[in-house]
Amino acid sequence: MELGNITGFSEFLLLGLSEEPELQPLIFGLFLSMYLITVFGNLLITLAISSDSHLHTPMYFFISNLSLVDICFTSTTVPKMLWNIQTQSKAITYRGCITQLHFFAVFAGLETSLLTVMAYDRYVAICHPLHYMVIMNPRLCGLLVLLSWIMSVLYSLLQCLMVLRLSFYPDLEIPHFFCELNQMVQLACSDTFLNNMVMYFGAGLLGGGSFVCILYSYSKIVSSICGIPSAQGKHKAFSTCASHLLVVSLFYGTALGVYLSSAVTQSSHSSATASVMYAVLTPMLNPFIYSLRNKDIKRALKRLLGMAVMKGPLVLGLKKCT
User: Fold this and answer.
1) Rounded to an integer, what distance in angstroms lies between the CA atom of residue 231 and that of residue 38?
2) Which strand ranges, in their side-by-side order, compose the sheet holding 11-14?
3) Backbone phi, then psi, for 187, in 5-degree steps?
4) d(CA 235, CA 122)
5) How far apart (Å, rounded) are the C-alpha atoms in residues 266 and 244?
6) pLDDT in tens, 200-247
7) Contact, 179 vs 12, CB < 8 A?
8) For residue 160, which phi and psi values (nearest 5 degrees)?
């Protein structure tokens, strides 16, 4: 087969999770439901935090940023997948694939970076409670989020530039529901040694480095909690970071499981199915984890929904008067 020149008119084929026609309506309905829950759930968390002045603290500032990232993270992959199922088309242009790859890498990097920043926030809150508001001032919080954006964008640009140097066969079939970096590198018809080196180095630096920082923060947190004399004090200190610890375990556990399983089994379809866990399921579950375990967010959500319910009858009453 001759190598084809990649142009703006070249198309790849996203095979999705299953090629069986009878399963497409089920997959469409399931992913549409998960996507809507993700968007509305994370949007509610963001609105509740922004509308309640009591939640204008560093911890909730980072949670609201994480919620916005979760919306964008899911939006890079699921809408295109739903569109392809609805139109019964598997095509995605080369430019569209690179664009999807870029934004997916950006928001995946932001997810890991924000989880690391939130671990540092919990470390300061538990290990240095008297200096918490001085250390975690608005300027530092803004700088930490800005640094997370810069690191994620630079990481994504590096990976995309490395993919752009590769050659692909025309009408390439990608056994995935989105243009995933590892799949793109594996399916290239040119030498990928440098790409693999950069890909694993970048993932180790951003993902592995973030994970090590989180582990270090929690080692200090556990040490401080063990030093608290009362059982009630230990429970209160642990409850402030339980939600974050659960989110970290869910995200890193599923992401690590995907790449370990793909390295062991070499099955592309199993890797695509497993990717649903960290790319779709985790962003959907994050609002439930933070809202169900946090009394302040529950209270803010009730107030926000109560205001919406009160405004509804008021608007209807004004319309009747007119």
Assistant:
1) 36
2) 91-93, 11-14, 173-174
3) -90, 0
4) 14
5) 32
6) 898 888 888 999 999 999 999 999 988 888 888 788 888 888 888 888
7) yes
8) -70, -40
For 142, residues 6+ apart whose C-beta sits below 8 A from its C-beta are: none
Given a cut of 60, whether residue 317 has pLDDT beyond it is no
Closest alpha carbon to 28 in 66, 103, 83? 83
Instruction: Check residues 308 and 15 and name the one with the higher pLDDT.
Output: 15
Cα 82 from Cα 16, distance rounded (Å): 10
Rounded to whole angstroms, the Cα distance separating 252 from 241 reads: 16
Q: How far is CA 152 from CA 112, 172, 207, 306, in A?
A: 9, 28, 11, 38
Read off the pTM: 0.87
Q: Which amino acid is at 73?
A: F
- Using CA atoms, how far apart are residues 301 and 64, in angstroms rounded to an integer? 13
What is the Cα–Cα distance from 174 to 226, expressed in whole angstroms?
A: 50
Amino acid letter, 272: A
